[in-house]
Fold this sequence. Notes:
Elements: H1 35-46, H2 50-79, H3 89-137, H4 140-145, H5 148-190, H6 193-240, H7 242-247, H8 251-304, H9 309-351, E1 370-379, E2 388-395, E3 400-405, H10 411-418, E4 426-433, H11 451-456, E5 458-461, H12 472-477, H13 485-494, H14 498-503, H15 521-535, E6 539-543, H16 551-565, E7 569-573, E8 585-590, E9 593-598, H17 600-606, H18 609-627
Parallel strand pairs: 3-7, 3-8, 5-6, 6-7
Antiparallel strand pairs: 1-2, 1-4, 8-9
Protein name: ATP-binding cassette subfamily B protein
Membrane topology: Multi-pass membrane protein
Organism: Luteimonas cucumeris
Amino acid sequence: MSVAMTDPVPTAPDAAHDASIGSAPVARAATARGEWQVIRDLLPFLKPYSGRIALALALVIAGKLANLTVPLVLKQLIDDLNVEPSLLVLPVALLVAYGASRLSVTLFTELRQVVFARVMARVSRRVTLQVFRHLHALSLKFHLARRTGGVARDVERGGTAISDLLDWTLYTILPTALEVLLVTAVLVWLYDWGFAAITLGTLAAYILFTFSVTEWRTRYYRAAVEADTHANERAVDSLLNYETVKYFGNEEHEARRYDDNLVRLENAQVMSRKTLAVLNLGQTAIVALGVTAMMWRAAAGVVAGSMTIGDLVLVNAYLLQLSAPLNLLGMMYREVKQAFTNLERLFGLLDERQDVQDRDGAVPLRVSRPRVAFESVRFAYDARREILRDVSFEIAPGGTVAVVGHSGSGKSTLARLLYRFYDVDAGRIVITDGEDTAHDGTGYDIRDYSQASVRGAIAIVPQDTVLFNDTIYYNILYGRPAASRAEVEQAARAAHIHELIVSLPDGYESEVGERGLKLSGGEKQRVAIARALLKNPAILIFDEATSALDSKSEKAIQAELDRIAIGRTTLVIAHRLSTVMDADEILVMDAGRIVERGSHAQLLARGGHYAQMWRLQQQESRAEALAGPQPA
């Protein structure tokens, strides 16, 4: 008899659309990879646990052997029941043996679970952790184009699929095949090839039908996974942009877009369940025909006197014993196929290429007073649209260089290249220590240093500060996780946010919410400044660091930023020219080129782009001052 099986409802990913203008979206992580390739990818993770795997397999085989003895003992018990009362001790012994056999089956099965549980959990953890680390190692290009929820879902499903694949293949499908062979051998040994022929014929028909129909059904499972993925991407993207949805009153628009994906998911799930009904019905019919043929032959043997009632019970018990795993075989195969599908997507993430990699022999960067130089740097996010064109400048040890210009001129790209989120297309970026001016040496290119050491020497206060959904304390501590609480509070004081934090009901343990939405823009930026201060870097980058502050707060923070920049090599990216007046050198960028450079006074005297921007901003400031505070 067949037990109706149901497919697990596939779950899916979130979303984060392509944030790089002019860049092509990154392809989905899943790659065309065969099942044997998935197994080859998985084997290195299993190798350290080969002993446990072998022991668990031995326990499974022991359980199957114990299960094989149950019908044999039952047959003997029934045949020996028709004896003189004085000989009743023999059936009692057989009853004890029967109970012991059934207990042994459960004992060995549970022992296998105990032995193998650690293997499944540990392998799943190691694979998932490796994928997580690999994702963090990928370049910014991948992360700007990824579907965040989709990636998260692929990792989640893949981690679960590892346990499913190991459990179904090693400890269900293989032992079931062994059990079928053992039962067939016993039937041939005790009776004749007729029973074996019926058993093997039924098994062959069942497997052929199951595999062919399951292959047909797999396309609908894949479609359901894809539809579920897109639906969740849409839902998460909409929820992450909740405020924008409310600003424009587009709740129904978002609901319709979400429902479009849900309709596709619904249709895929309906087809998956319809084809499941076909599979279950066909499996039941094949098993029923096989059981009927076996029982017919056994009953005929009893009538003819060539078989006892015990023989009939034995054949029936073996048929029932085989029908259960046979009924499960279809579900096993389906689960294995689905596990392979999910693992393809998981290992597909590991196939994503790291655009920025450490060179062989990369050395750690160790600098206290670094000199930074951009030498004839050219760069494009997309080959069709160049962002930086032959950019050259130098920041002296402990000096400050400011970069100003209109939006899209390439200012923030300088910081991304210095962090090695991308590698330059031409030219190079040089970091040397102290007064060393040997820029023609090959050992100073930042590509010759390890990425971790380069980024460890730099701290940034970005224009758009995104915080972790954790406490204020955690977000400041993130700058240097090994710092003490006193150092965290000292950094908060330097960023002029300590008093605000201690005034909150939960103080430093106050939750900031997702992406820091519980804090104002200015408060988030102060947390980012405190985090950068705590890192205590040799190189500082301020990317519009005071853009979210009011004029009074800006002056206070700017004075503090000027103080902490002393002795550090500092790159300031700014829109407000009043914040860069004291820089050692100011670079004016336009369309990816440096069109002017010099001090504040020199640039004003030149009367070019900078002077024009200065006059415009001064006029805006005077107009705001004359207008005064606006009524709420």
